Amino acid sequence: MLPHIELLADVDVLALSPLLRGMVLAVSYAETEGGIGLTASGAMNRKFVHWAAVHFDWPGYTSEDLYSINKVLNEADMPPLLVVRDMLKHLRLLRRRKDVLLPTRRGREFIARPQVFFDLIATDYLYAYIHDGQTQHDVRERMQWWHVFLNLINIKARKGCSLNDLANELYPSESYPEPAEMTFESWTERSALRYDVIRPLCWLGLLHEDRQGLTIWQDGTYHKTPLWAACLKLDSDMQSELTLH
Fold this sequence. Notes:
This is DUF1819 family protein. It comes from Aquamicrobium soli. By secondary structure, the chain is mainly α. The protein has two domains: 13-125; 130-238, Orthogonal Bundle (Arc Repressor Mutant, subunit A), CATH 1.10.10. Helices cover 49% and strands 7% of the residues. The strands form two sheets. The chain has a three-stranded antiparallel beta sheet. Strands 4-5 form a two-stranded antiparallel sheet. The longest helix is centred in the last third of the chain and has 21 residues, at 184-204. It is globular.
């Protein structure tokens, strides 16, 4: 059974959740600027992508981060923007009219009270969203493991944990040596854990990665944010360790 997500405590959701903040900012921009312009191929135009890079304040994807790699920014150059757009479309918060995206009536309700939409957004994004390179089958297979992932992280991230800490608990038969010695199976498991579990939790705002003093190639330490306890009640809340079967 999938762990239930319900926002119960009074926390600053917009400050904690990059995804919710990005969605609110995108709809607000469309409302005040007469829509989000689209290119001939249907992508968000460079004017908006630049604005989003500056204003979204997305960890790891700030304007400084993005412009250090690209001279100009297209929609595909800002991966979080693809998720923001998908979720806005899925929840019918924006609609396309000719060459612009405009807020729907529901979209205007959303920017007025975004916290009311958090449970739906969090549940759909974490459990049902098909990330780039995935299939519906991948999503269904992962559903049976979410209770394990969340309960393990709930315990391990109390004092901070790394990707390796979690991987070694989940896959004890596979040690994680230096990258040059890693098997294809180990690399696949590690990548799936990073991009299919940890990154969505960070983008949703339930986890924060501390990367202070690290290079781009080094893994950070993950900590739970106040949003985690505000919306998740798990079996492991009172446990000091989790036994995996």
